[in-house]
Amino acid sequence: MNQRRGSLTKNDGTPALHRLNALAPLDDAAIMALEIAFQRARIISQRRELTPDSINTREPILVLDGWAARLRTLADGRRQILNFILPGDLIGLYGYDQASTATTITAFTPVTFCPAPNMSLSPALELAYAASRALEEAHVLAQITRIGRLNAHERIADLMLELLERLSLAGLANGNEFTMPLTQEILADALGLTSVHINRTLQLARREGELEISGKSVRICDPESLYRSIGRHHPAID
Amino acid sequence: MNQRRGSLTKNDGTPALHRLNALAPLDDAAIMALEIAFQRARIISQRRELTPDSINTREPILVLDGWAARLRTLADGRRQILNFILPGDLIGLYGYDQASTATTITAFTPVTFCPAPNMSLSPALELAYAASRALEEAHVLAQITRIGRLNAHERIADLMLELLERLSLAGLANGNEFTMPLTQEILADALGLTSVHINRTLQLARREGELEISGKSVRICDPESLYRSIGRHHPAID
DNA sequence: CGTCAAATTGACAAGGTTCAAGGACCGTGG
DNA sequence: CCACGGTCCTTGAACCTTGTCAATTTGACG
Lengths: 238, 238
What we know:
By secondary structure, chain A is an alpha+beta fold. The first copy, chain A, contains 7 helices and 10 strands. At the A-B interface, strand 4 and helix 3 of A face strand 4 and helix 3 of B.
């Protein structure tokens, strides 16, 4: 509720710029608006809740750095992650009623964010926001198929590919490699499994030579082949 | 693609009126616009695909009668229903890119629909559309928690409660009873289970006295108790 | 009465969970 | 520098939920 707003941070917003520019080539007005917004950046610490409401602003927010997720907790403590929130993502673009849906947003790392510039400032920005909204919707739908119809092995592969795509869009992937600050328990909450089973399935994927995971670093050895193995195809990033 | 547009139908759009009016009390302009739209109603037959694209209109559409669902099919034939579409629901309110997400909409019964009146015609209509959009989003998120963290028994209970809520909103429920034209296989595709397991779990729910299901008729014996059993509470329909 | 889709049943296999314990890693304080 | 505590990862064994396969029954309808 009354969390520290954190001090201004020196984060330069590069990933957010990268992602929004990839969604719709930004014009000068958009870039300027973003630069200004970056100067109002705040940071909240790990495990904090992060919502437009809890940070005292009714405007949508733009994530500059860090990982978070929208998640739902059941009465008996079971948790389900609805979608991950990564640098460059926007929160609260449409005003769905968080409260009524028992949904919270939790930070898994310290998260740097700023108010999202008003999209009326630039047509490019408006386009980028629309694309971002569409992508978020697509990720949510992908999550349904993932947990509804894929087995543990496929769920992990599918999620890793989504993360690689999304981080690449923000310029945060290094080839087929990226940093993933998630515990196996968090993965379990995302994939509708237990952390024990995540652990075993990850080991299998390592032995199969599909993934190299150590600590927070993930390498997808052959994305194309992994896409094929779960019957999808590499999306042309439009 | 080139499907028969169907003939004009005598459907009066009552469920759609009921639902939209419940979401936001309609003014005269809205009602008039809807009445006009109803006269342009079309019907498509069972098992048809139903998308703004396949029915030659770029405008969103309003469902007047019948059941459908948005679903995704995997390369090997596995299917996952993303959400059900019921009378009074709107399709294509935001232009998410159906094509890019390999999502289709399939009719489980003959479906009557009409173009959705432009929301600029009435502030009430605009409010109703916004509420409808928020509800759809909530249902999609509920679906994630359902298949991610509930067991078979809970999934069925949770879905039945959602259907009762939604049909009540459209005036299509008779107390705790409603008509559900879905096969057990369709339920399986919605709940991430197999039809065999749906069958067994339904029988259990019948024996437990929770549900009375015969043919297409469903009765939820004690909604309140069922809500409690899955750790939710009856939503105040706002 | 014949036909077809849908519902139902049984036996069995597989995938995932549970419980419990041990080990690795990391920051902190002495 | 090392001991300590906490969090996360790893492992084993038993168990349970759900899936698979294949056959039979039911029900709607022409």
